């Protein structure tokens, strides 16, 4: 970089400082090492793209190694990278930089440590510190900042005899500063040194060409898009990046510079918006403070009237109000600090603008990526603005109208609106969720707000989704499969809001709902089965026809099953469907069957007079106990007499008391065609009752069979039309 270029960039910084665009305080935040909390000195770029002083990396490795060797030592208590790092001896520090050191050679073996910037573990690999890039762009900006900060502080000549003179030039090839006389002596005309590059006085000397840390004689000339770092051609040919996608340095330079420039322009253009939102937050904080104090005063007034009885309750209510106010103010304060940070990001903008002046492509690329991500994160919060808390304290109005004997259960007044209660019996989840609730008629609300959110498997709660409802029921769609959801509702009357109802937890089916109807053509026996017009309910009419055939009944005779299947087949994916078995049913079989097995059942004449024939699972009963582990092209379970019978299994107890369960109100079937697995669920609790492998080499169909009196009702999908029908009923 030429001397005139340095002077021009330095002047630009001073111009920004003078105009107030970038303050010394703001830009300094970007130039502080997260470990030592001081200005960067020879910063290195870690694998996570954060920078840290060269000396701090060594100290971290030493401290972690000392902690590993001596858990009880004092050093083990100082291993946090957020603490001010003590300075170990230079002898220890030098040992870390030596290549090829082993354990027990007085050098630490630790190469993994938490980054002080992001607190994620970073692994330096086999080369350790030697494999890290030096952040020359950041180093140059730090040096420029040092000069602006100390202003008149001069850089002295490195070659003068004491006392040294003030330097006028710095040689980038010699890495030294000279006064005029010394420069003439050490750079005489007509010699090679006369061709050296010199700049204004500086203490920041960096190489003209960025070299690869893994191949020290090779120049950086490519950029690895996977690892987000510059590489040389040897890294690509046979090194760690041989199978990675790389691009030219000029292309990476151009792309990152364009992205960074656009983000900087966007962030600068939103300064007025940030200031406006900060002003709004200030007003909301004042309103919250005022409403909170007003709520306290009203509470104190009510408690004074019943002081003798309510002294103990008074303290707890005031604490609750203060806690709520503090929580809200803390949220507003945190939110305001976040937006204040966006204003202070002018320092980040200033730093980014300085990075844009970097002309060396390699140096720019190694710095710009992480900076680009930071600026993107800063811009995301500008796209939507929502206050972090509510200012209203209406839920904290104390109710003094209750009778004296009820004061022991005193709680915050619900503003005259009782809490609505979700009706668990009428609420269900299938393809969608149907939530019903009731509210006393005398407290009929103007509207309700239904809230729901997904509960992660680690019990982590996500933010609530809100839907305004005029009635007392709502269908919620687009819920994820096999997830727990929490639902609650609150009532509104004018601007008054009731507290939220007790939460209802529902579990969604393990797969998308499979829609089908009973097939009235394939195998349907209209003499024994009665199918309704909607084809979603079938009933077995055992009786008169059986009596007409009574003269054929002999010893060992088994009444045959009447099959009916779904009108849609399954050839891939995961599917779930549900149905209800009528409580009066004598024997019903439900499950899945392949197309070829159904043809066998529905077309092959049955030997109904054979004492060995039992249509228990669609095959000869004599072989039932021998096919536990075989993968059959069908699976049917038996339901009847208000019981659910679990098939025999070699892996569990086959005692009758362990195989017989109460019949669930609604039963679900889950078929994973690709994995060849079928499961049967209790829909009330979405609990799997029985699961086994099934051969899915052919098209699979929902299959049902009935014997004697019985009925099956397919579960109706939950839709808005279904909701209207329920309300009419």
TrEMBL record:
<dbReference type="InterPro" id="IPR047065">
    <property type="entry name" value="TRIM36_Bbox2_Zfn"/>
</dbReference>
<dbReference type="GO" id="GO:0051726">
    <property type="term" value="P:regulation of cell cycle"/>
</dbReference>
<keyword id="KW-0175">Coiled coil</keyword>
<feature type="domain" description="Fibronectin type-III">
    <location>
        <begin position="419"/>
        <end position="511"/>
    </location>
</feature>
<dbReference type="InterPro" id="IPR027726">
    <property type="entry name" value="Trim36_HC-RING"/>
</dbReference>
<keyword id="KW-0863">Zinc-finger</keyword>
<keyword id="KW-0677">Repeat</keyword>
<dbReference type="InterPro" id="IPR013320">
    <property type="entry name" value="ConA-like_dom_sf"/>
</dbReference>
<comment type="function">
    <text>E3 ubiquitin-protein ligase which mediates ubiquitination and subsequent proteasomal degradation of target proteins. Involved in chromosome segregation and cell cycle regulation. May play a role in the acrosome reaction and fertilization.</text>
</comment>
<feature type="domain" description="COS">
    <location>
        <begin position="356"/>
        <end position="413"/>
    </location>
</feature>
<dbReference type="GO" id="GO:0005874">
    <property type="term" value="C:microtubule"/>
</dbReference>
<dbReference type="InterPro" id="IPR036116">
    <property type="entry name" value="FN3_sf"/>
</dbReference>
<dbReference type="InterPro" id="IPR050617">
    <property type="entry name" value="E3_ligase_FN3/SPRY"/>
</dbReference>
<dbReference type="InterPro" id="IPR013783">
    <property type="entry name" value="Ig-like_fold"/>
</dbReference>
<dbReference type="InterPro" id="IPR003879">
    <property type="entry name" value="Butyrophylin_SPRY"/>
</dbReference>
<dbReference type="GO" id="GO:0008270">
    <property type="term" value="F:zinc ion binding"/>
</dbReference>
<dbReference type="InterPro" id="IPR027370">
    <property type="entry name" value="Znf-RING_euk"/>
</dbReference>
<dbReference type="InterPro" id="IPR001870">
    <property type="entry name" value="B30.2/SPRY"/>
</dbReference>
<dbReference type="InterPro" id="IPR003649">
    <property type="entry name" value="Bbox_C"/>
</dbReference>
<dbReference type="InterPro" id="IPR035727">
    <property type="entry name" value="SPRY/PRY_TRIM36"/>
</dbReference>
<dbReference type="InterPro" id="IPR047066">
    <property type="entry name" value="TRIM36_Bbox1_Zfn"/>
</dbReference>
<dbReference type="Pfam" id="PF13445">
    <property type="entry name" value="zf-RING_UBOX"/>
</dbReference>
<dbReference type="InterPro" id="IPR003961">
    <property type="entry name" value="FN3_dom"/>
</dbReference>
<dbReference type="GO" id="GO:0001669">
    <property type="term" value="C:acrosomal vesicle"/>
</dbReference>
<dbReference type="GO" id="GO:0043014">
    <property type="term" value="F:alpha-tubulin binding"/>
</dbReference>
<feature type="domain" description="RING-type">
    <location>
        <begin position="33"/>
        <end position="84"/>
    </location>
</feature>
<keyword id="KW-0206">Cytoskeleton</keyword>
<dbReference type="Pfam" id="PF00643">
    <property type="entry name" value="zf-B_box"/>
</dbReference>
<dbReference type="GO" id="GO:0005829">
    <property type="term" value="C:cytosol"/>
</dbReference>
<dbReference type="InterPro" id="IPR043136">
    <property type="entry name" value="B30.2/SPRY_sf"/>
</dbReference>
<dbReference type="GO" id="GO:0061630">
    <property type="term" value="F:ubiquitin protein ligase activity"/>
</dbReference>
<keyword id="KW-0968">Cytoplasmic vesicle</keyword>
<dbReference type="InterPro" id="IPR017907">
    <property type="entry name" value="Znf_RING_CS"/>
</dbReference>
<keyword id="KW-0479">Metal-binding</keyword>
<keyword id="KW-0963">Cytoplasm</keyword>
<feature type="domain" description="B30.2/SPRY">
    <location>
        <begin position="496"/>
        <end position="721"/>
    </location>
</feature>
<dbReference type="InterPro" id="IPR000315">
    <property type="entry name" value="Znf_B-box"/>
</dbReference>
<keyword id="KW-0808">Transferase</keyword>
<dbReference type="InterPro" id="IPR017903">
    <property type="entry name" value="COS_domain"/>
</dbReference>
<comment type="similarity">
    <text>Belongs to the TRIM/RBCC family.</text>
</comment>
<dbReference type="GO" id="GO:0007051">
    <property type="term" value="P:spindle organization"/>
</dbReference>
<dbReference type="GO" id="GO:0000281">
    <property type="term" value="P:mitotic cytokinesis"/>
</dbReference>
């Amino acid at each position: 970089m030429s001397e005139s270029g340095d002077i021009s960039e330095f002047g630009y910084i001073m111009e920004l400082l003078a105009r107030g665009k970038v303050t010394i305080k703001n830009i300094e935040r970007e130039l502080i090492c997260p470990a030592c909390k001081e200005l960067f000195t020879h910063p290195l770029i870690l694998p996570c793209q954060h920078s840290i002083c060269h000396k701090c990396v060594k100290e971290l490795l030493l401290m972690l190694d000392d902690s590993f060797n001596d858990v009880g030592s004092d050093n083990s208590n100082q291993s946090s990278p957020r603490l001010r790092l003590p300075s170990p001896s230079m002898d220890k520090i030098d040992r870390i930089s030596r290549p090829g050191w082993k354990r027990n050679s007085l050098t630490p073996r630790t190469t993994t440590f938490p980054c002080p910037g992001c607190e994620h573990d970073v692994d330096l690999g086999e080369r350790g510190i030697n494999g890290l890039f030096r952040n020359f762009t950041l180093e140059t900006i730090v040096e420029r900042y040092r000069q602006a900060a100390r202003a008149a502080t001069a850089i002295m000549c490195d070659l003068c005899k004491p006392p040294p003179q003030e330097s006028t030039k710095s040689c980038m090839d010699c890495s030294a500063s000279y006064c005029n006389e010394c420069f003439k002596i050490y750079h005489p005309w007509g010699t090679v040194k006369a061709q050296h590059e010199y700049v204004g006085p500086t203490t920041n000397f960096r190489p003209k060409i960025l070299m690869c840390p893994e191949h020290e004689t090779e120049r950086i000339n490519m950029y690895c898009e996977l690892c987000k770092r510059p590489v040389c051609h040897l890294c690509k040919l046979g090194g760690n990046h041989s199978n990675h996608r790389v691009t030219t340095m000029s292309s990476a330079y151009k792309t990152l510079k364009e992205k960074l420039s656009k983000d900087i322009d966007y962030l600068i253009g939103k300064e007025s918006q940030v200031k406006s939102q900060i002003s709004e937050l200030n007003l909301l904080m004042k309103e919250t403070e005022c409403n909170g104090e007003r709520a306290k005063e009203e509470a104190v007034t009510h408690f004074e009237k019943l002081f003798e009885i309510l002294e103990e309750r008074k303290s707890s209510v005031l604490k609750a109000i203060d806690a709520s106010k503090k929580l809200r103010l803390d949220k507003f304060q945190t939110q305001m600090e976040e937006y204040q940070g966006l204003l202070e990001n002018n320092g980040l903008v200033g730093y980014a603008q300085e990075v844009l002046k970097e002309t060396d492509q390699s140096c720019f690329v190694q710095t710009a990526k992480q900076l680009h991500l930071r600026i993107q994160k800063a811009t995301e919060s500008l796209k939507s603005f929502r206050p972090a808390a509510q200012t209203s304290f209406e839920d904290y109005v104390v109710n003094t109208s209750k009778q004296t004997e009820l004061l022991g259960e005193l709680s915050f007044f619900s503003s005259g609106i009782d809490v609505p209660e979700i009706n668990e019996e009428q609420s269900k989840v299938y393809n969608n969720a149907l939530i019903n609730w009731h509210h006393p008629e005398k407290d009929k609300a103007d509207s309700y707000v239904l809230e729901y959110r997904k509960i992660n498997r680690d019990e982590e709660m996500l933010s609530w989704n809100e839907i305004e409802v005029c009635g007392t029921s709502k269908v919620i769609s687009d819920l994820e499969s096999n997830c727990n959801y929490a639902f609650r509702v609150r009532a509104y009357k004018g601007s008054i809001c009731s507290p939220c109802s007790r939460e209802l937890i529902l579990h969604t089916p393990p797969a998308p709902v499979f829609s089908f109807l009973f097939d009235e053509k394939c195998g349907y026996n209209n003499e024994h089965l009665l199918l309704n017009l909607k084809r979603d309910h079938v009933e077995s009419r055992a009786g008169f026809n059986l009596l007409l055939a009574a003269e054929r009944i002999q010893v060992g005779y088994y009444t045959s099953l009447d099959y009916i299947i779904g009108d849609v087949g399954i050839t891939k994916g995961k599917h779930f469907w549900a149905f209800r078995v009528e409580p009066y049913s004598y024997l019903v079989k439900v499950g899945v069957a392949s197309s070829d097995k159904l043809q066998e059942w529905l077309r092959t004449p049955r030997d109904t007079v054979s004492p060995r024939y039992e249509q228990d699972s669609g095959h000869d009963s004599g072989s039932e106990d021998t096919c536990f582990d075989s993968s059959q092209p069908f699976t049917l379970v038996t339901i009847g007499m208000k019981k659910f019978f679990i098939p025999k299994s070699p892996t569990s107890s086959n005692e009758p008391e362990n195989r017989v369960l109460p019949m669930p109100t609604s039963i679900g079937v889950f078929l994973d065609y690709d994995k060849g697995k079928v499961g049967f669920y209790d829909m009330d609790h979405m609990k799997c009752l029985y699961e086994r492998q099934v051969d899915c080499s052919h098209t699979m169909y929902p299959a049902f069979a009935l014997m004697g009196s019985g009925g099956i009702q397919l579960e109706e999908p939950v839709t808005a039309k279904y909701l209207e029908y329920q309300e009419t009923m």
